[in-house]
């Protein structure tokens, strides 16, 4: 549970940081080397990981204090909501803590992403040449794809209508379990593939491998 929360929170904050990076690259390209220096990258990375570890440590500590009725979690993973549903006591304090954490580490990065891409799209539309617009869109296409996959599944899971039985019962819907697996496991596994395929060196390496394989 600690690792899952830490990784998920870090992913959300990193996506927000990367949206700002894309905004600077497209909207302020001449100032990019100054604003996004090596020290800035290191600070942003450390801040993202610290946010993830801190949020996870606090929430995990509070959940571990709960008396549980049973020892079987109705989930594929040790997911915090599934564990909290097993509590034999009032969990309003834990729920409030989760709401605060969601606002700080999920919605605020999402807000930063929305604002950044609004400014990016506005800037791109002002470019007159089609080639320039295409190049600008290509710059942020990989990050935007990851945002859609990661946040899209999260928003679908937590904002889709719940049936009365699901709301009143202790069981999680099977769809929720699968979706949590998607944004918690599948989406991170796809990140290296999505980002690396945008890299020219990686593309050339893949082409060379294909030539060698076909040649043999």
From TrEMBL:
One of its GO terms (cellular component) is plasma membrane. GO terms for molecular function: G protein-coupled receptor activity; olfactory receptor activity. Keywords: Cell membrane, G-protein coupled receptor, Membrane, Olfaction, Receptor, Sensory transduction, Transducer, Transmembrane, Transmembrane helix. The chain crosses the membrane at residues 96-125, 137-158, 178-197. Residues 1-195 form the G-protein coupled receptors family 1 profile domain. Its main location: membrane. The keyword Cell membrane applies. It is a multi-pass membrane protein. It is found in: Cell membrane. The keyword Membrane applies. It comes from the Eukaryota. Possible taste receptor. Belongs to the G-protein coupled receptor 1 family. This is Olfactory receptor. It comes from Myodes glareolus. The lineage of its organism: Eukaryota, Metazoa, Chordata, Craniata, Vertebrata.
């Amino acid at each position: 549970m600690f690792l899952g929360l830490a990784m998920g929170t870090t992913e959300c904050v990193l996506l927000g940081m990367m949206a700002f990076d894309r905004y600077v690259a497209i909207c302020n390209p001449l100032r990019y080397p100054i604003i996004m220096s090596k020290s800035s990258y290191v600070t942003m990375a450390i801040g993202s990981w610290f946010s993830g570890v801190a949020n996870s440590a606090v929430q995990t500590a509070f959940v571990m204090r709960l008396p549980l009725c049973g020892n079987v979690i109705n989930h594929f993973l040790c997911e915090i909501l599934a564990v909290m549903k097993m509590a034999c006591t009032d969990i309003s304090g834990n729920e409030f803590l989760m709401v605060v954490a969601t606002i700080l580490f999920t919605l605020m990065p999402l807000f930063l992403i929305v604002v950044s891409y609004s400014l990016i799209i506005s800037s791109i539309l002002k470019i007159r040449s089609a080639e320039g617009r295409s190049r600008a869109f290509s710059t942020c296409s990989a990050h935007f794809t990851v945002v859609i996959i990661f946040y899209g599944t999260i928003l679908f899971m937590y904002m889709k209508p719940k049936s009365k039985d699901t709301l009143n019962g202790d069981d999680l819907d099977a769809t929720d379990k699968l979706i949590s697996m998607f944004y918690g496991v599948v989406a991170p596994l796809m990140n290296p593939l999505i980002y690396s395929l945008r890299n020219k060196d990686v593309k050339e390496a893949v082409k060379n491998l294909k030539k060698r394989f076909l040649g043999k």
